[in-house]
Each structure stands twice: as C-alpha cells, then as structure tokens.
Write a structure and sequence with these properties.
- This protein is an alpha+beta fold and about 800 residues long.
- Among the domains are: about 30-80; about 370-590, P-loop containing nucleotide triphosphate hydrolases (Rossmann fold), CATH 3.40.50.300; about 595-690, Beta Barrel (Elongation Factor Tu (Ef-tu), domain 3); about 710-760 and about 770-824, Elongation Factor Tu (Ef-tu), domain 3, CATH 2.40.30.
- The protein is built from 23 helices and 23 strands.
- The chain has a seven-stranded mixed beta sheet, sandwiched between helices.
- About 40% of the residues are buried.
- Bound molecules: guanosine-5'-triphosphate.
- It is found in: Cytoplasm.
Length: about 800
C-alpha cells in the first residue's frame, strides 16, 4: 500500500499562526475532546511501548498522539523508532563511495590538532532567529526595505485532495481554532532588546510592522507562496526501502578545507557571526536585496525568460502583470543563460539503453494483467469498508492489522469502521495543511495486479475524484442498496458523469449493504430494483450495457466480495454465473495490455503528485504514463516549468523497476538539473522525454491524432463540450486531468449535432465523428446541447488536442468534453 505525499500548495502554505501551532511552535490549547482522547489513548500507547520494553514520558506520548491525530499505531511506531538507536556509520578505509565516511587528510588532522590547542572556536548561530537578530535594518532606507507578504497562490487548488476526509476535517478544525486564537492575540511585543524579532517582522504584513515605516508600494507577489520550514517528520511506521543508489556520484576523495584554508576563503571566524553581518552580506548586495523583494520573484523571472525565449506565451486574459521593459529584458537574458548553465550541470545517471517496447513484448506471456480502478460513490455508502474487505480477502492487508484496527476503533466507539481504517493506515505521514494526498493501494490475484485509487466521496473533494479517475482504467461505483435515491441526487450521479467525462468506459457497480435491506436482509427484489435503476442511469450517462457489471454484496460482512456466498438461504440466489463476485467482475473488466504502438510513441506523463522523498531521492513525481515508456537514466523535460530532470529510480505498484510503460502508474525519483525547487513543480504538470515531441493524448475517435504534436504550453483552447448546465461566456474552473486552472469561456463558437443517428455506443455521443454545425455563435448553450467553445486559461500549461476537459463553476460541473484545438 502506498500513499504519496504531495507538496502541492494552497493558501495554507503561507506563514500563519495556525501553522506555527501545527508545526510545533506554541503549545496548542486542547479542547475537552482532545483531553479525553489523551486520557484514553495515552495508557494504550504506554502499554504497547512497555510490551516492547520501552518507555516514554507523558509529554512525548501526548505529542505523538497529537501529531498523528490519535492514531495509536503510528504514535507507538514513531516512539519506538525514536528510541531505536541508528547504526553508527563506520569510517571507511580509503573513502570513496557516497555514504561512507571520508578519510581524513593530513591537513585535516593537523587542523584538528591546532583547533584543539586554540580552544573552542566561536560557533556561528544555529537558529534562523539568531541569524537575523542583529541585522542592521536601519541601515537601509524604509522605502527599500523588503516585506514578505502572504500571497494567494497563482494556481487555485482544491483544499484537500484525497485522503481521509475525517482526518482532513480534524486538521481543518485545529487550524480554524488556531487562526481564531491568533487573531485575538495582540501584536508581538518588543523583545528584551527593545526590538521586534526580525523573523516576526519578515513574516508580518506590512501594516503590522509599524516601526519599519512601510513603503508605499506593495511588492509584487511571489510566484510561489512562502513555505515554512518544518520540524523533521517522525519516521513512518513502515519505512519504505530507499531507492537504489544513483550511479552518477563519483567518490569525493578531496580533503575538506583546513582551518587555514577556511580562514583564507571566508575570512576570520567572526565574519560568520550575524552580529557583524549586514543585510547586503546575507542577501548579496543591496541592489539584489531590494530586487528580491520589490521586483518579480526569481521564479517569475525564470518563467518569463523561458516564455520570452520561446516567444509563445501570450498575455493572459486575466493577467495583471506589468509589461517587460528593456532593462528587465537584459535580466531575462541573463537568467535564461543561467538556466542553460544549470542544464549543463545535469547529473549523470547511467541509462542501460534498454529497448523497453521489445522487452515488454517479450515478457508479455509471463506477466499478469494490470488494472487501476477508481472507487467512486456517495459519502458513507461504504467505499472504504468495501476496499478494506477486498484487501483483507486478497491478502493486501493482514488479519493481524485488522485486529489491531478493530481494537483501536473499539476504543473510540467506532468498531464498525475497522475495515475502513485499512484505507487510512496505508498513508504515510502527511505534511498537514499543505500536503495533498492521493491514496493508492495494491493487491494481486492469480491473474491480475490491481491498483486501487481511493477517491473521496464528499462533494468538496470532487476535484480529487477527477484526478483519481483520470488515472484509472475502470471505475468501481459503490451504492448503498438502501439509499440509492439519495446517492443518485448526490455524488453518485456526479461521480459517474465525471468518470465518463475523463474517458472511463467500463464500470463495476457494487450494490452494497444488502445485509441491511428491508423488509428482510439480502432481499433479491431490493437488488433487482436497484439494478434496473442503475442500469438506466448508467446508460443515460453513456455507459454501454456490456461495459457495466452490477454486483450484490456486503463489504462489512465480506459477502460476495472476494468469495461466493454459501448456497444456503438468505444469499442462495447469489450464485455464479448469474452473479459474479466483485473480484471476478473486476478481473473480467481488466483492460487489455497496451498496444506496442502506444509504447513506441513519445512519453507523456501527467504528474499526479510531487513529493519529497528520502535523502537519496529528494524529489519524486508520480503519475500515469499515457503513452510511451521511460527507464532509469532517461532525461525528462518537465513542463511548463521547462526544467530537466534525470530519472534515478522507478517504482511501479510500490516495486522497484528498471522501466515503466504506457498505462502504468509509476513513481519516478528524480535528479533535477540545476536548481528546481519542489515548489517549481505542480501536480498537473507534464513530463515528456527531453528532446522528444509530444503525442496527442489517448484521444476520442473524432480527433485526428495521426501526427505527434510538439509540446505545447498554451493559454487558450477550443473544446467540444456537452453542457451539463446552460453555458454563457463565463468564468469556470478548468480541469485537464490532474491540472486545475482558473479559466473562462471566452466565446461560444457554435452548437453541434450528430449528422445521423449512428452507433455511438462505444465512443459516446459527444465523441461522434460525424457532427454538423447546428447554430453559429449562439448566445447561450442550453443544457444537454453539444457545442464548440473557446477557453481562456489564467495560466499557461500543457494542453494537447484530445485531452479530456471538465468545466466547473461554483462547485458544480457545468460541461464535459475534450480539446479540439490549442492556440499558443
Ligand atoms: N451493515 C453494513 N454496514 C456497512 C457496510 N459497508 C459499510 N458499512 C458501514 O457504513 C459506514 C460508512 O462506511 P465507510 O466505508 O466509511 O463509507 P465511505 O463511503 O467510505 O465513506 P466516506 O469515505 O466518508 O465517503 C460505516 O459505519 C460502515 O461500517 C455493509 O456492507 N453493511
């Protein structure tokens, strides 16, 4: 099981007092409920620790519980890990490889001896607050002093993608309380030196830092929000093995600089002390310092430089950024040059030069089928419980784990959620407030390797559902047999519509909770009723009958999930071949392996998650390969940031691999060329092979995708859509797979109709090849009509002909369709 950490950013990225508390600043105010939880769970954690011969203080246990949202298992695991001494690194002879201690040179030894004689050297300050304490701010005139102000991130992102909505709610609640408490606090008082803490001043909005005499003009917001440094995350319960060591590192056999050398190159020891440093010293000159805060951010400059050098990104319809002048042109040229230099510093990871399509074809006979399915459905219809059961019955999770969840859930009076907790406990530590999770779980049967993409049921998280569905081969819709009507009014309807909109054609429906049906449990007539309604609903949504399977089951009891029920009453009517088990239906709907032709196309992977990994793999991305293949050592071009990165390691279904191919969801551990921060990459960005052309995505039949289009970073497109609600020129949120961007319907080109009622069962009405213009330049597109619309995007991104698109407004889906054409 795996849950990828995402470092997506939203408004919560900004410094705020809530973050301070969340990340270990001040001691939080505990509510009565918190206190109750402490009282109940602390002894449990202590007992579990004592079982393994370890002990921890009350505070440590409380901190762990708080950190892990009352998750006893994780807290115990963390406390255990923090008490297990790490193996000491043995000094190696001769030094050489990374990870081994470097041999001390004679210079080093001499330097150490002289240092011992000279006594303790003044140490540079260790905390950021110390570094900034004595900055002579007053040396700069107030007009040019910089202020970091919280900004709204340029890309609007959903608050939380995926993960457990219950945990998310708890985190959200804490943040709200903390924010309320902070707003009632007074401004910080001067410290003992009579001055405000410099970090406080940096973080404060300008009107709050009166003694700085706020400059009149606001600095332009930074492209990316300021991120707060966090305490290191405690180790996860089941640490994943680090990816293989990169081969590019050559051993560093140089001696470290001697004390004398250090003195020559950095000046006397006191030069490192904050008290003797000026702002210029720290930020590299007054001019730079001023620019760093008042001009566009470095990211802005680089992005503009890229756009400038390509000459392809036109002004955004919503852009309010000032135009470039001559002097900034020079700056841009310089930054572009720097980018090129960065590219030349590319890390060298050896590629084995595998012929991946050939290898894939050769191994086909021995390989299991693969399928990724997204679990959709209305909130509380039993998705998590059913998935927990499926994982348990297929060996994806052990009975021991279930017993543990059962015990913990019972302690909180929620024993019926024990199976649902399987889905939550697979998660690694999340970076609260800014981290976005999409949960992936893996299990295998004799014939198929499955990936579960866990989509949240709540309507607030529909964007995540779109993201999950856009990576799936098929959908598993879970409906509560006793609550079908409410589901069809709610997320069941919207999820099905969206699954179809992102290109899913096969759907398995689990008619769940039949053990609770009325008038009697396992009522065959209740199932038959639901079956009829669901069939007609799915047909309306565009699913063909051979591509839907409707299965009676109970996730809680495990009836007809992985195993057929006993032939005795009351489930005697559920027998194959009329009724498959849920697992049999999923196996039957597994897609065929990708065609060799898809593998030989250029690579295209839309990034679904960006996350920081381990020390050896600091930046990783995950996503589904839409076409092509990649292998360790390949150089990727990441768009629209236009950065290059080399693949150091690959994981598919949590297993290390040498390559990944179209259709697979892979995690790629990257070595980025140059200086890309994780902030420079976003979920929704696209990775292609550097130097290759970009293929059209798996596109509907009407789209002529014969030729591979070059990578296009664009801000406008024409889309063929079906109106879910009446459409006018209006603001919309545009979803292109995982990428969500603010946009606008800038024009209504025409309405369309099928030329003749043909067989569109496979493709769906929207994708019909033969369409004619019904009305040009309509004023409005009515609900249910098909139309061509012009879209403007607030930001440039990779959009390709054939990409599926969903338009939403005010939290509701207003149109679905695909891209017909793009314009730079
Ligand atoms: N009797 C019965 N109860 C069930 C069944 N499946 C789930 N439940 C109960 O329904 C409640 C909700 O189940 P979840 O699995 O959390 O539902 P969900 O759809 O994942 O909910 P969200 O993740 O919040 O969208 C829990 O109390 C479950 O124990 C079932 O087959 N029979």
């Amino acid at each position: 099981m795996q849950r990828n950490k995402n470092v997506q950013y939203d408004a919560d990225d900004l410094y705020d007092s809530a973050d301070e508390e969340e990340y270990g600043g001040e001691v939080p105010e505990y509510t009565t409920e918190d206190k109750d939880n402490f009282a109940t769970l602390t002894p449990v954690v202590r007992a579990e620790l004592e079982e393994t011969g370890l002990s921890a203080s009350q505070t440590e246990i409380e901190e762990a519980l708080w950190h892990y949202y009352w998750d006893v298992g994780k807290s115990v695991s963390y406390l255990k890990n923090s008490r297990t001494p790490r193996p000491q690194q043995q000094p190696s002879e001769g030094g050489g490889k990374k990870g081994q201690a470097k041999a001390k040179s004679k210079f080093d030894q001499a330097a150490e001896k002289s240092a011992e004689k000279a006594g303790p050297t003044p140490m540079p300050p260790t905390s950021a607050a110390d570094w900034f304490r004595d900055i002579p701010w007053s040396n700069l005139s107030p007009e040019i002093q910089g202020h970091l102000v919280p900004t709204v991130p340029p890309r609007p992102y959903p608050k939380l993608l995926g993960g457990s909505s219950k945990l998310a709610k708890l985190a959200e609640e804490r943040r709200r309380k903390a924010a309320a408490a902070a707003s009632s606090n007074e401004a910080p008082s001067p410290d003992s030196n009579g001055s405000f803490n410099s970090l406080d001043r940096l973080n404060k909005p300008k009107d709050a830092t009166k003694e700085n005499d706020t400059p009149a003009s606001q600095p332009e917001p930074k492209r990316y929000p300021i991120r707060k440094k966090r305490e290191p995350t405690p180790p996860p319960r089941e640490p994943t093995p680090p990816p293989p060591e990169p081969e590019e590192e050559t051993p560093d056999i140089r001696a470290s600089p001697t004390g004398f050398g250090r003195t020559l190159s950095t000046g006397p020891p006191h030069a490192a002390l904050a008290s003797s440093m000026t702002l210029q010293d720290m930020l590299g000159g007054a001019e730079e310092a001023v620019d760093a805060f008042t001009g566009p951010s470095p990211d802005d400059i680089v992005a503009k430089a890229q756009a400038h050098s390509k000459g392809e990104i036109t002004a955004a319809p919503f852009s309010s950024k000032p135009k470039q002048n001559a002097s900034s042109d020079a700056q841009l040229a310089k930054k572009t040059e720097q980018l090129q230099v960065a590219e030349s510093t590319a890390p060298k990871v050896k590629s084995k030069g595998l012929d991946v399509p050939k290898l894939w074809a050769e191994g086909q006979a021995d390989r299991k089928a693969q399928a990724a399915f997204v679990v959709i459905g209305h909130v509380d219809h039993g998705k998590s419980t059913l998935m927990g059961r499926l994982l348990l019955d297929t060996g994806g999770v052990s009975q021991r784990d279930i017993d543990r969840y059962q015990k913990q859930a019972s302690e909180l009076g929620k024993s019926s959620f024990a199976l649902a907790w399987v889905m939550d406990t697979g998660s690694e530590e999340r970076e609260r407030g800014v981290t976005v999770d999409i949960a992936q779980h893996h299990f295998s049967t004799a014939s198929t390797d499955f990936t579960i993409l866990d989509a949240p049921g709540h309507r607030d998280f529909v964007p995540n559902m779109i993201a999950g569905a856009s990576m799936a081969d098929l959908a598993l819709l879970v409906v509560d047999a006793n609550q079908l009507a409410s589901g069809l009014k709610g997320q069941t309807r919207e999820h099905v519509l969206l699954a179809k909109a992102v290109g899913i054609t096969r759907i398995v429906v689990a008619v769940n909770k039949l053990d609770l049906s009325a008038p009697e449990p396992w009522s065959q007539s209740v199932f038959a009723d639901v079956q009829i309604q669901i069939k007609s609903f799915l047909s309306e949504a565009g699913f063909s009958e051979p591509n839907m399977a409707i299965i009676p089951c109970s996730g809680l009891n495990g009836t007809n999930v992985a195993n057929s029920p006993p032939s005795s009453s009351p489930t005697s009517w559920i027998q194959p071949p009329i009724h498959l088990t849920l697992l049999q239906a999923l196996e039957a709907f597994t897609p065929p392996p990708p065609a060799l032709q898809t593998l030989t196309q250029p690579l295209r992977l839309q990034i679904s998650d960006v996350f920081r990994g381990t020390l050896t793999a600091p930046l990783s991305i995950s996503g589904r390969l839409r076409s092509g293949s990649c292998q360790i050592g390949d150089t990727l071009l990441l768009l629209p940031s236009n950065t290059q990165a080399t693949i150091r390691a690959i994981e598919v279904a949590a297993e290390p691999r040498e390559y990944a191919v179209a259709g697979q969801i892979a995690v790629l551990h990257l070595a980025v060329h140059g200086d890309l921060e994780a902030e420079g990459l976003r979920a929704g960005d696209v990775a292609v092979l550097a130097g290759s052309s970009l293929p059209s995505s798996a596109s509907p039949s009407s789209v002529d995708d014969g030729a591979s289009a070059p990578p296009t970073v664009v801000k406008s497109a024409t889309a063929r859509v079906k109106a879910v609600q009446a459409l006018l020129p209006m603001g919309v949120e545009v979803f292109l797979g995982r990428w969500m961007v603010a946009g606008e319907i800038t024009g209504l080109k025409c309405t369309l109709q099928q030329q003749q009622a043909g067989d569109v069962e496979e493709t769906g009405e929207l994708e019909a090849r033969q369409v004619v213009v019904k009305k040009k330049k309509p004023r409005v597109i009515r609900q249910g009509e098909m139309a061509l619309v012009e879209l403007g995007l607030a930001e440039a991104g990779v959009v390709t002909k054939g990409d599926r698109v969903v338009l939403r407004n005010g939290g509701a889906t207003v149109a679905v369709g695909f891209v017909e054409a793009v314009r730079a």
